[in-house]
Amino acid sequence: MISRTGDMTDTLKISNLHVNVGDKPILKGVDLEIIRGETHALMGPNGSGKSTLGLAIMGHPGYEVTDGKVEINGENILEMDADERARLGLFMAFQRPIAIPGVKMADFLRHASTNIRRPDRKEGEDLIPMREFRKELREKMGQLKMDTEFARRYVNDGFSGGEMKRAEILQMAMLKPKFAVLDETDSGLDVDAVKLASQSIAEIGREKMGILIITHHDKLLEHNTPDKTHVILGGRIVETGGPELAQELHQHGYDRIRAAHPEAAAEDDKMKVETAAAG
Amino acid sequence: MITDTKTQEFDVNTAEINKYDFRNEEKYVYKARKGLDEQIVHQISDMKSEPEWMRKYRLDSLRVFNEKVMPKWGGAIDLNFQDIYYYIKPSDRQGRSWEDVPEDIKRTFDRLGIPEAEKKFLAGVKAQYESEVVYGSLREDLAKKGVIFTDTDSAVREHPDLVRQYFSTVIPNTDNKFAALNSAVWSGGSFIYVPPGVSIDFPLQAYFRINAENMGQFERTLIIVDEGAQIHYVEGCTAPMYSTESLHSAVVEIIVKKHARCRYTTIQNWANNIYNLVTKRAVAYEDATMEWVDGNLGSRLTMKYPAVYMMEPGARGEILSIAFASAGQHQDAGAKVVHAAPNTTSQIISKSISKNGGRSSYRGLVKVEDGARKSKSNVVCDALILDPQSRSDTYPYIEIAEQDVTIGHEASVSRIGEEQLFYLMSRGLSEAEASTMIVNGFIEPLVKELPMEYAVEMNRLIELQMEGSVG
User: Is A82–B426 a contact, with Cβ atoms under 8 angstroms apart?
Assistant: First the structure.
């Protein structure tokens, strides 16, 4: 049985994960374990499978798991739909959030928050009281320096890149997940916005989240020093280190990694050629 | 698991049937025999003690109806005109207040939530039960201002000059076969006259409902908004389910005079066996504005294209329509705008949703006559298809006889995207909740134009339509 109460030893464990997109293998045996309260960074060149890992964990139907397990506290979640995973405490901040025209942020978030906080809620049952919800939403928006007008806008519809990313962080703040994957939440943001995002994530993370930060840069890690840094290359995690590894990759790129792991580097090159051919 | 799902679906369907399929035991004072001929038309006219001009008009319309061929476009119509009742009068008295309304009729209205509407809108509630308006009330100050809000039968008797001046001037009985049919056998409908400069700042409402099997409902609505006046008229429908064909064929004529403004909002939710073949048209004069807001759910076939003819400079027409087609349903809906004068502006926004093999078509005409300089028209039609069995078509017709105009047309067809569903589900929404949210978002531009309680009802209807559509 999975603890829904917030046990500090909650664990997200990924073992030997193989994922195909279409017929194409993208992940070829990923192992990763995050204990709630830890921050991990996941780095790697473009097209090495970072987003695929996030989407597969979250349960995107287009990402087919061919082998391996994803477990929360020992229970395999791979048979669950995305909504069940979310109700279990999993969250992903999308690199490219999807627009839902006509659906107001506030309505969407009220519905989502209710379902996450009352995982056994049946369709049609009451939502969180409006007053209570509004108060909380306004508070969180204030912390993210978002205009209250934002709540009345349609989900991601016509948002700027920065607004989208901020909206993702707002959702995370409202849904209070146990584990969050942040997929390039810093991309498309200017320096100040990255700083604000970084601070906000740290603040929310204090409520004891397990965080997996997918990033190219070190800015987001400034306030979120990773307990561990993982490097993914050719669909496998090839190195794991501390915060200094993230520093190194940011400053010097992936040459050393590629040299140290020639097979993975070759795999990585092959995947890119295939992607280019398919595109 | 599979059995569970089936049981659930069964429950849902039963609930739906219970909600909409409550027929009252038929208790009619007068019911004409089935079929259509001169004798039936005479009977209807006799029952209503009509003036001679209306009797002649009906008989003339019957001749036109018999001569006209069925429309060769739109949806398939499988109707036997001799197997339909054309007139039923449910009660020989017309209630002045709620207490006077007969009990069984009241029960039907209760289930439709009319008393609540009455509470909310102490203005004018008009409810059509079968062919006659049996209950009506109008706020006194409106009457004092000279506003007339009554059923069209009463209007023929009580305001003969007004009716005769405008009746059939917007939609002649020669317009189309179904307009001719309505002109021959019409009964009930609303008559509204708003005197110059009078503005009504709350929506006037009417509820319609078909109850006798095989019965056609042919209401006739005539609205005259005099110079500088304003009105918002709202009409909603739910009909019980029946096994044999039913026909609803209304005619709605609206005259919007200089500087006047009219909005006409309809939400129709017909049972799946009903043919809903309606002619709605407005003429707008100098600087006048006419707005149609039109929602179509249910029915076997709906053919409805609200029209605005802009007759004088500065006139404006706006048509906002939404159609939801589910299994066994064809919504052939759209809009028609005619620019007959310079500086006229029109906008058409059409949204359609097709599900479970339903078919929706947008059929629209933008016509700009020679000399209608600087006219502007913009058409946006979006279709949402929920599954591979469903279908959507677009038939935009544009006829422009003037060079100096601005015309825009955008059309889009989309399927509920896997990405949208996944995004919402990753936030804890079930697939059904996510689909419903996407559909409600799709029609939001229309729903936000509705009065509050209609918006709630519309969202609720969409939820009912969406139930059992996933899994």
Answer: yes
Residue tagged 């076939």 (tokens): B301
Judged by CB atoms closer than 8 Å, whether chains meet at A83 and B443 is answered as no
B427 touches chain A (CB under 8 A): yes
Three-state DSSP state, A164: helix
The interface pTM score, or ipTM, of the predicted complex is 0.94
- Closest CA in chain B for residue A94: B423
CB contact (8 A) between residue B420 and residue A154: no
> A181: nearest CA in chain B?
B426
Q: Which residues pair with B283 in a beta bridge?
A: B255, B309
* Amino acid making up residue A106: A
Sequential pLDDT tens for chain B (471 residues): 333 333 333 333 333 444 444 455 555 556 677 889 999 999 999 988 999 999 999 999 999 999 999 888 888 888 888 888 887 765 544 444 555 555 655 555 555 554 444 433 323 334 444 444 444 455 667 888 999 988 888 899 999 999 999 999 999 999 999 999 999 999 888 899 999 999 988 778 765 445 444 455 888 999 999 999 999 998 865 545 444 558 889 999 999 999 999 999 988 877 778 899 999 999 999 999 999 999 888 889 999 999 999 999 999 999 999 999 999 999 999 999 999 999 999 999 999 999 999 999 999 999 999 999 999 999 999 999 988 899 999 999 999 999 999 999 988 887 777 899 999 999 999 998 999 999 999 988 888 887 776 677 677 777 777 765 443
For residue B395, CA distances in Å to A175, B197, B332, B362, B366 come to 45, 39, 10, 6, 11
- B69 secondary structure, DSSP code: P
User: Among residues A23, A96, A89, A92, which one has the least CA distance to residue A56?
Assistant: A92
Residue with tokens 């039968």: B153
**Set of chain A residues whose Cβ sits within 8 Å of the Cβ of B437:** 100, 103, 107-108, 111
- CB contact (8 A) between residue A86 and residue B425: yes
Q: How far is B284 from chain A (nearest CA, A)?
A: 31
SS3 of residue A225 by DSSP: coil
Taking an 8 Å cut-off on Cβ atoms, the answer to whether A100 and B423 are in contact is: yes
